[in-house]
Amino acid sequence: MKIKWALLVSLTSLAAILAGCEPLLVLDPKGPQAARQAGDISLLIVLMAFIVIAVLTILVIVLFKYRASKMPDDYEPPHIEGNIWVEVICIGIPIIIVAFLSFVSVKSNYIVESAPTGYEEEPLVIYASSSDWKWHFSYPEQNIETVNYLYIPTDRPLEFKLYSYGPITSFWIPQLGGQKYAMADMVTTLHLAADEPGEMLGRNANFSGKGFAENRFNVTAMSQKDFDEWVEEVHETADPLTEEEFNRLLEPGHLGQMTFTGTHLDFSPAPEHDHGSDADEHEEHSTHDETNEESDHSGH
């Protein structure tokens, strides 16, 4: 009886604690990449639940069916060679599960790594760079820069260029997509999009020192009209970003939200090596075509 009461109290306490937790942001997608990942997570939860329930059910059946019985001490059970169907099931089902999950993972990986489709406008390019312990967002098209907050238009692809002015960090907006590393000597490209307006939270998902826990930024998705109005307001009210001011911002520490006209790309450009960008692919194809053309001429 005591064990039952202890189990009941434990389950009640666990339910009360979980009820106070924040909602799982990865299961509340606001963009196509995040929606794909949320679907995969839900699929995995259902599949794992089915496997666990099936295994526990088989365990209970085996415990009851093959439990010790009141047989004579000299009783010897009949010799069993094995069952081909049991072996096929025990080996075949795991193979099918692994093959299925591999197919889903590879297909989803290509989808979330590619630029979102179905949008009429060209991607908005944003350079997202990190320093100890803050985020700098440069908008070359709009010629503005923000610190620790990000404004984005809805229904338009987003192309983030990620790099770091310090240790390796990881750029992550759970409701828009997965995380990707930002490094000091190269630029990584992350494609995202927001389908509905709202407030979201972004953060550095990679440990980068004592200030890592507060290395967060706010994300606001809005209509293209509201985004254009915000850009105009910034140009009317914000101060220009100077090289001296930017170097001061790079010093280790925490800052609030800041807004500037101009970007640090003019005097402190991003690393030249761009990993995973469309530009690299075009350059590679162009070089390949030029090589083939030279080979043709030399052959003639």
Automatic annotation (TrEMBL):
Residues 121-233 form the Cytochrome oxidase subunit II copper A binding domain. Residues 271-300 have a biased composition (Basic and acidic residues). Residues 259-300 are annotated as: Disordered. It comes from the Bacteria. GO terms for molecular function: copper ion binding; cytochrome bo3 ubiquinol oxidase activity; cytochrome-c oxidase activity; oxidoreductase activity, acting on diphenols and related substances as donors, oxygen as acceptor. The keyword Transcription does not apply. Gene3D superfamilies: 1.10.287.90, Cupredoxins - blue copper proteins. The keyword Transferase does not apply. The chain crosses the membrane at residues 43-64, 84-104. This is Quinol oxidase polypeptide II. It comes from Ureibacillus acetophenoni.
